[in-house]
Design a protein that fits this description.
homodimer; five-stranded mixed β-sheet; elongated; alpha/beta; four-stranded antiparallel β-sheet
Amino acid sequence: MSESWTRFSRELYLEVDVAAGRARGRRLALERALREAVRSGRLRAGTTLPSSRALASDLGLSRGTVVEVYAQLAAEGYLVTRPRSATAVAEVPPWAAAPAGPAARTGPPRHDLRPGRPDPSSFPRAAWLAALRQVLATAPAESVGYGDPRGHAELRTALAGYLGRVRGVRTTPDRLMVCSGFGHGLGLLCQVLRGLGDDVLAVEDPGLPALGQLAETAGLRAVPVSVDERGLRPDLPPDTRAVLVSPAHHYPLGSTLHPSRRAALVAWARRAGGLVVEDDYDAEFRYDRQPVGALQGLAPDHVAYGGTASKSLAPAVRLAWFALPTRIAGPVTDLRRVTDRHSPVLDQLALARLVSSGALDRHLRRMRMRYRRRRDHLVSLLGERVPRVRPVGTSAGLHVTLVLPEDGPTEAQVVAELVRRGVAVHGLAGHCRRPPPAQGIVVGYGAPAGHAYPHAVEALVSGLSELLHA
Amino acid sequence: MSESWTRFSRELYLEVDVAAGRARGRRLALERALREAVRSGRLRAGTTLPSSRALASDLGLSRGTVVEVYAQLAAEGYLVTRPRSATAVAEVPPWAAAPAGPAARTGPPRHDLRPGRPDPSSFPRAAWLAALRQVLATAPAESVGYGDPRGHAELRTALAGYLGRVRGVRTTPDRLMVCSGFGHGLGLLCQVLRGLGDDVLAVEDPGLPALGQLAETAGLRAVPVSVDERGLRPDLPPDTRAVLVSPAHHYPLGSTLHPSRRAALVAWARRAGGLVVEDDYDAEFRYDRQPVGALQGLAPDHVAYGGTASKSLAPAVRLAWFALPTRIAGPVTDLRRVTDRHSPVLDQLALARLVSSGALDRHLRRMRMRYRRRRDHLVSLLGERVPRVRPVGTSAGLHVTLVLPEDGPTEAQVVAELVRRGVAVHGLAGHCRRPPPAQGIVVGYGAPAGHAYPHAVEALVSGLSELLHA
């Protein structure tokens, strides 16, 4: 790019590419240069600009061009024009583009064994692209407009069938809501409950801390309820009208809600007119036997069932779903309409294709085998080399909680030492709202990519082994 | 599928495909049949089931299979097993799959002239697919994991450059937040303002009603401020600390905020420590001259600038962005992290490619020409055939507001008559929190697909012509 320089005031030089092709190009170059000069503070407030005639002559531009530029920048607030007096620079404080807000994120840990994450290298990219290609080739034009706040009918129909078949969920497309993650849907639910006069959400303790936080963000109190090897204890605080539970595979303890407690929970909901929010986050992954069906199937009018593609496909997809009781489906939809309207439609249609073509089932079969092998491998390795840690919970999901021996180093020491070795796991204490029932670590064997998995497990096992034999 | 029937209690027949291939298939078939029988109410609560031995013999299955099925269904809560007594049906009320929640949506109107919608047939499907193909071929594995709540760094970097170049926005990737629509980001902002102790958001009146509703959902009061042909009047209520404004192209009146008012608004924000929320929803579409730069460029630390892909690409994409002042970038990010975490990553990366490859610019050039032709055509047709309506606002965007003559039919009558003719437009009254300044209709000339546009405009113009000549 050729450059010409012109001096047009005593204070500074203005760099303008007046050689730039057409008149429009020259006008834009001048406009940009002047705007930048004002913004950067180089042209100070109050500075009088040369007359349009003078500047045009200096720059070899038509006077009309300069008049347009002055008018444009006056319209934007950078210049002040007054009848019968010279154009001047307006008051625009300089602004330094210093970094701001939250600190830049660091990369993922060397050995990523954080729970709740599927193997990122397993995302079925080819199937996802093929589904999107089909969607883009066939979806009618109106699919790219504003859509149904509950989600696209095609996905809701596919999900209603899928959830009935795979999880025993009893629902209809009308009662389903597609959202951007389990937490997103839970947040909407909590806001609706708040609006209906509730002020408590009973949560599992231990449990996923982010979910209690969501309830609190919505203005509810998150009241902890204990969990044991039979799952959530059914003695809810008396003022409870809503409870969050992970019946198929408790997070993080891995227990399955006992049949008597399932029955008690449903009986409570019927008696108290309460709502059970079922977090079915990883139920596609059960390795020892057939998964227990969804609690929702027992009481569709009292259970809001939530599932997600974050574990079965990938978190980045941001798709999840809730099967809602009739009485709250309407308010939740209304709230969704005024908040973020709906989830991206093309992604929804792609997921609908994966579900109805059987591609999701095939992917899940593959992943079930892979995760099962990983779990078995990890547990047997621990049994051999670190027998003092006790894995708890059923053979399911993407994580296992390891209870630490009482006479060894503290949980915090173990986590810190593992971090020092580049191994990221979560401590059990971070999942507890009250004093933890035990010391332990939550290990996600799903998170590492295939090639990284053996190294991550070796780093974990050798770290634990050294720590606990010391 | 072959079917065999077996009677196993006095109350009902159970349909089980016992001929189905492998043992596992038969087990599942029995399980499903029993579960369905309980759910449907055909097997009533308390009903005693035959012993596993008897049923196995009836069905020609192994006894172990039936034991497993009973255990599974007991775990799911459909059956009750007690030591030393027969398995019985648990209390599970029947549930009818009647339609629920909000009524099924009807299709789009015959002549869709609703404002704020781009031509759905213009969505660049090939470019979008090509971008996604590249993303899926090249993005590292960790891209499909949980991401940055502010949005993917690649998109934020592309947007920071794009917004600076095209809209004069001064920001850095660190201050940008990618969200799922302007309203989504505004809702988060309002929640943060509420958390910081604010309780008012001043909104333009007329204005987009959904935005005031969003503020109210977040617990703020939406206080109306008048708008005239120079845009928002700068006399804000004394307790105001935040104001929402559409400076480039007011919605729905189409005015551009006057330079003196831009200056006044910025001066107010500095003086009061206030926040200006800039709604730059359709600024890519200005037809008479260069668009006025973003207000944000004058005061990046006092203006939260929001833009969206809903008009420039398609609403279904659900991507928008905010350039935030430093002091609120952190709290907004924190809130995003606990609510819906972040927007879908693959879509973000696709948009980043469209921006940085120039494909978005090319698309916008094409669309600018198309919408400009539509607008000119509509306005000239109205001038010829319905001179009594007065189009107001600058030549920009996807809508034009038509002020109705004072001595003709009422706005409500006009809208109703147009609806009767299959023409969907919005009435001005619906955009007002106080008595409307005039009667008018808001016509979106972007919404119809290319082939439908001439018919839609003809239906509108002939309808108005008949109504106003009557």
